[in-house]
Specification:
By secondary structure, the protein is α/β, with parallel strands linked by helices. It has helices spanning 57-60, 79-89, 96-101, 132-140, and strands at 74-78, 93-94, 110-114, 124-127, 129-130, 144-147. Helix content is 20%, strand content 15%. The longest helix has 11 residues, at 79-89.
Length: 148
């Protein structure tokens, strides 16, 4: 076997359809576009959502809802995550930078601490927001809460 002997397996390749190359090709004349009409012309492109003149679905359905421009969205971090960080890395202070370095939040996220899980480590926790139960659990473990 040499490079000049190599060829693809039988039936694994297909000939390209050469459109608009004369009647003998079987794809001459209208070039597989049918007769007349917009779709046969060069430069034709249908509008996105066009349904052949029928009222399109985005116009049949009513507008609804409201997007509050003043909404504040927090990234939720649970107490079990803080406990895990304290056990693995021996942290006594956990702030936003610690969570960013751990890959749990990104630079622009606001962080809220929630109360899922148990916390036994004594921690100083600095975050943008806390749930009431999370504050109770942190203080029950002799920790402190600092709101940024």
């Amino acid at each position: 076997m040499k490079l000049n002997n190599l060829k693809p397996a039988e039936g694994s390749t297909h000939k390209r359809k050469r459109i608009g190359r004369g009647q003998g090709s079987g794809h001459g004349g209208t070039s597989t576009r049918g007769h007349k009409g917009a779709k046969s012309r060069s430069g034709y492109s249908r509008k996105i959502g066009f349904e052949g003149g029928q009222m399109p679905i985005q116009r049949r359905l009513p507008k609804y809802g409201f997007k509050n421009p003043f909404r504040v969205e927090y990234k939720a971090i649970n107490l079990e995550v803080l406990q895990n960080l304290a056990e693995k890395h021996g942290y006594t202070t956990i702030d936003v930078d610690t969570l960013i370095n751990a890959g749990l939040v990104s630079r622009n996220d606001l962080v809220k601490i929630l109360a899922k899980g148990d916390l036994s480590a004594k921690l100083e926790v600095k975050a943008h927001a806390f749930s009431k139960k999370a504050v109770e659990a942190i203080e029950a473990a002799n920790g402190t809460v600092v709101k940024l």
